[in-house]
Amino acid sequence: MESSAHHHVQRLYAEHHDWLFGWLARRVANRADAADLAQDTFCRLLTAPSPAPLAEPRAYLLTLARRLTIDLWRTRDVEARYLQALAHQPEPVAASPETLCMLKQAVAEIDRLLDGLPVPVKHAFLLNRLDGMTQPAIARALGLSLATVERYLKRAFLHCIAARRELGA
């Protein structure tokens, strides 16, 4: 039997999907991405612990959609930087479609693992893990103290461990 929360999400979808899709299509200038982001927004509602009726559904949907859009842009930025780094290798490295697919999946997994962390913590962690920056270099680049960078990296690492445990991996 479907729960009242499920019916609530169905009603929100019926009432607001077209509007949200239109907003996203203008924002990302790509109808396929807009469709995916709109779908992901409502999936987030369905997977929420117990979605309660919303006083301002459009504001809430926009908040979720903006976060997902930022995640999409961040993922694409990481992919672009990786491909750019490959292009600047002394010996050209031709990545196979399978390798590129695995890399995209890895980036998506990293993004899921970091979900819920504040942006500065994620940024420091990605600079360390993806760009190979040292803690002092991150501190200089972000204008933070070394102790703050160490605390951010520890927090992100522990968050990833907890997230992996939740996923059963």
List the helices and strands and how they pair.
Elements: H1 4-28, H2 31-47, H3 57-87, H4 97-114, H5 119-129, H6 135-142, H7 146-167
Helix pairs in contact: 1-2, 1-3, 2-3, 3-4, 4-7, 5-7, 6-7
Task: Give a verbal description of the structure.
Helix 1 packs antiparallel against helix 2, helix 3 (57-87) crosses helix 4 and helix 6 (135-142) packs across helix 7. By secondary structure, this protein is mainly α. It has 2 domains: 1-92, Rna Polymerase Sigma Factor, Chain: A; 95-169, Winged helix-like DNA-binding domain superfamily/Winged helix DNA-binding domain (Arc Repressor Mutant, subunit A, Orthogonal Bundle), CATH 1.10.10. The chain is globular and about 55 Å long. It has helices at 4-28, 31-47, 57-87, 97-114, 119-129, 135-142, 146-167.
